[in-house]
Amino acid sequence: MDSSHVRVDGRGLRCDDVVRVARRGAAVSLDPKALERALQAYRVARDSETKRAVYGRTTGVGANRHEVVDPDAVDQHGLRLLRSHAGTSGPRSPEDTVRATLLIRLNQLAAGGSGVHPRLLEALAAALRAGAIPAPHSRGSIGTGDLGALAEIALTLAGERPWGSGSLEPVPISPGDALAFISSNAATLATALLAWSDLSRLLRASHAVAALSYVAMNGSPEAFATRVHEQRPHPGSVRCAAEMRRLLWGDAEPADGARLQDPFGLRAFPQVQGPALEAADALRGILEIDINAAAENPFIDADSGRVYHHGHFATSHLALGLDRLRAALHHVAELSSARLSDLVEPDLTGLAPFLADGPSGSSGIMILEYVSHDALSRLRHAAAPVTLGTAIISRGLEDHASFASQAAHSTAEAVSAYRTVLACELVGVVRALSLRPVDLPDTPVAEALRRAQQALPLVREDHPLTAEIAAAENIVPFLADL
Questions:
Q1: Which end of the chain is less crowded, N or C, counting CB atoms within 10 A of the terminal residue's CB?
Q2: Contact 429, 398 (CB under 8 A)
Q3: For the stretch 159-179, what's the b/e string if a residue is b when 16 or more beta carbons lie within 10 angstroms of its beta carbon?
Q4: Confidence band (pLDDT; 50, 70, 90) for 47?
């Protein structure tokens, strides 16, 4: 399939597809079979409403589940529900997050379990094609459905809220469409997925930055040897060690190391990076299940003609997956800060303390350790688990929450902090390799150094490092492509 095009069918959406639509403008089309499934479910839902109580369609929601909607007021029930639930707070969600939200919700609806009128699917697809972006707020979910943000999006489609950019003609909201549309964690999934994408890229770039530090400190290859990792074959550690061998030596066999024991930042890198790689892989699996799920409550089963009330709004898998990734990432970031501290040690680099190159008492890159540990502290706070708390709301009926939304926002915050940690190490290692050039083989680490030196030219005397940190933050993600 054309990489600039994503076809939505409710079953085959991948994380990379969402990133391409949200950030790179890939076109979206809706599979006609998905519309047919949605129409079948809509008909089952409407028929069921005449035969039994259906949560949110013939009744109120939450603790109002036993309150029967007045038949004379049913036409306005959906809009009332949306208006009452469009209570949010905080800044507006970024446009790439909103585009991801629209695509994820469209794909979930295309799975055919919501019972919404097909015109809502067509409206979401049209919005993505036209660049019409609603402006929902980012706060107000606790991991049991992004009710507020999705209600704001639905009211935008209905013409009751202003668009953030672009616009569409208003779309009618059928009485049963309201809960069916907002019964989703699409906004949380969008935030989590984009943060996962960013962190996965930074984790790939970590190998290149660590490889440069290895060269600057003349590390020992023994820690990355195939035979070593065959003895304790955790998949992430094995992958990390293989990546370090590829970057540093390509297809060649490395020589024995000159140093008996490297610092942990080099020697234990595969054992610390490995769990983070595995956590990112596990989170991708969780995300790809959820963005293709017909998880609305109630589930309208067009095949059997039945309506099922259930708990698929609960997002413990997602929340725990995000908590795991941030915790693993913090350990990786600690090693990056440790390698930066190693780079200022003359015994490890053969250079002056703090990589200074000026009169006696010059400070060189001394301040980088402060910046790195500030970012590491921010990451430590972002890594705190959110899944240890819960909430009891709606008159006690809803007595558990995963706080996946908070986990997603914390993971997005971790992206910036970790990027800064890696950038500080990169500034240090490029300076070290510019002060003491090393003959590198024709392997990817040589290309990493060439790209980094282009962005970070050597300035020998003491000088402000702010611009270099910013330049390193910009280039770090591109080292993932080596």
A1: N
A2: no
A3: eebeebeebbeebebbbbbbb
A4: confident
